[in-house]
């Protein structure tokens, strides 16, 4: 039986994590791709705008792109500690960031292409050591819509329609995983409840990984897929919220968010797993510190990290 959806007050729902300093922004340094690490760290890629190109019709920080290799910095926030890692060069079109458990990190471009006539897919990800030196490069699929790392340094990806239909063997399944060497270690099974069309977001809960995606069927249902890497068990659930931009889960409780695009507000839905079905238990609108755009949420172990402009907040499950 589904629980009745009730409104609830938003007071005290979230806590402040970190804010990109205004004086650095005034100097032209832009906070771009970001992620939450396996231990809850916040990591942010920073590039000076003189190296960037701005796409005027794309709102917010996602409108800044890296058109050519350039120097950059990765800032890692752990509690009150802020660590800066300078990078001599980041690849063009770096738009995704993932932290490994040992402090290494991956920068990736969302797209790749097949080199003809040999048919090899171009590398679109670079693994850096903790000090910021590149270790290797590899390909992790085409049109990466969402990306998250796990405690064993695997990289999990959910792909967009251009990657699903690009001919790339792993991203063609919609969902995939890779090890730190860039080798494919998992793809979505053929018995998915529906063909995938678009990745939405990703999360972890302990050793479990969750990938959220929209189906390509007529109803455009959204699914929450839980993968347990140690056993290979994969379970698909219908999402109580269509196309959420943020998802966090702990056991049988979860929260899902849907932004008011380019507005400082979102809809927060809490849900419980009841008799094998995720059911919404409460829903309310939430005012946040900054305007919300794409790539705004990532769930880690019972909390959702959410980007609102250049301010990051945490919402507990």
Describe the model.
The protein is mainly β and 317 residues long. It has a single domain, classed as TolB, C-terminal domain (Neuraminidase, 6 Propeller), CATH 2.120.10.30. It contains two helices and 28 strands. An eight-stranded mixed beta sheet has the order 1-28-27-26-18-19-20-21, with no helix packed on it. Strands 2-3-6-7 form a four-stranded antiparallel beta sheet. The protein has a four-stranded antiparallel beta sheet with strand order 8-9-12-13, with no helix packed on it. Strand 22 and strand 23 form a beta hairpin. The model has no long low-confidence stretch (mean pLDDT 94).
Supply database-style keywords.
317 residues; mainly beta; 8-stranded mixed beta sheet; 4-stranded antiparallel beta sheet; 2 helices
């Amino acid at each position: 039986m589904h629980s009745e959806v009730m409104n609830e007050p938003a007071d005290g729902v979230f806590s402040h994590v970190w804010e990109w300093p205004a004086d650095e922004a005034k100097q032209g340094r832009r906070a771009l791709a970001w992620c939450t690490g396996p231990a809850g760290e916040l990591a942010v890629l920073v590039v000076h705008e003189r190296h960037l190109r701005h796409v005027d019709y794309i709102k917010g920080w996602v409108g800044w792109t890296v058109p050519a290799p350039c120097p950059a910095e990765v800032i890692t926030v752990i509690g009150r500690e802020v660590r800066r890692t300078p990078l001599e060069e980041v690849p063009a079109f770096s738009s995704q960031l993932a932290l490994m458990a040992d402090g290494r990190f991956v920068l990736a471009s969302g797209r790749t292409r097949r080199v003809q006539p040999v048919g090899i897919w171009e590398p679109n990800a670079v693994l850096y050591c903790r000090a910021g030196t590149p270790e290797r490069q590899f390909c992790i699929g085409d049109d990466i819509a969402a990306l998250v790392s796990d405690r064993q340094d695997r990289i999990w990806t959910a792909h967009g329609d251009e990657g699903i239909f690009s001919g790339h063997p792993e991203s063609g399944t919609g969902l995939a995983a890779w090890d730190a060497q860039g080798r494919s270690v998992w793809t979505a099974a053929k018995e998915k409840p529906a063909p995938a069309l678009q990745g939405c977001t990703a999360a972890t809960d302990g050793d479990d990984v969750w990938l959220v995606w929209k189906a390509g069927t007529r109803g455009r249902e959204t699914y929450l897929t839980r993968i347990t890497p140690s056993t290979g068990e994969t379970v698909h659930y219908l999402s109580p919220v269509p196309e959420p931009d943020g998802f966090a889960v702990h056991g049988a409780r979860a929260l899902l968010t849907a932004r008011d695009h380019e507005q400082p507000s979102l809809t927060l839905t809490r849900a419980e797993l009841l008799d094998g079905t995720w059911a919404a238990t409460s829903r309310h609108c939430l005012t946040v510190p900054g305007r919300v755009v794409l790539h705004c949420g990532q769930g880690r172990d019972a909390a959702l990290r959410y980007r609102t402009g250049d301010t990051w907040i945490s919402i507990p499950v």
